[in-house]
Input
Amino acid sequence: MELDYIKTFCQIPQEVTIYNENLELLRSQALGVLTVAGVSTDETNSTVKGFISTYCRLYYLPEPTKNFTEIEQKRLQVFINLLTYGGTDDVQG
Output
């Protein structure tokens, strides 16, 4: 499975493999969320990649702060809105 873009976003060195199984599970869950939302799951789309990477970063951290969680959840909603209604896929993170 393609985890390179997720690991880069989460600042995990490519050589580190201890998180791969968890990241693969989170990637699958993120794709499930996109499927339920009825939007694209095409990982060549930068907005889809942004959603998946953000989802993985949010849920792979053991104890994120409340502020971090709120910001990341808002970011996920922006991605869903972009995938649903269109617009630019340039979401800063």
Q: What stands out?
A: The chain is about 65% helix and 0% strand. The mean pLDDT is 91. The radius of gyration is 13 Å.
